């Protein structure tokens, strides 16, 4: 499965704990990655500076669903479940 053009849920919703260009301490959850283009594509795609976690999170029907809203909701729940001390809604 390929990423849905313009979705970028994984580039916005999830936290990234490893350093990336411009964010030496990583990216907090909910913050759009500064490397998203106006078309919501990754400008680091295929570059050595791209964090490994980004390449290790492949698109899947379970995660992406058929809508951007599904992808955002799925990843928000995943982030909540994997982040210590995150309160339940």
TrEMBL record:
Pfam entry (one): CxxCxxCC
Superkingdom of origin: Bacteria
Protein name: YkgJ family cysteine cluster protein
Species of the source: Paenibacillus wenxiniae
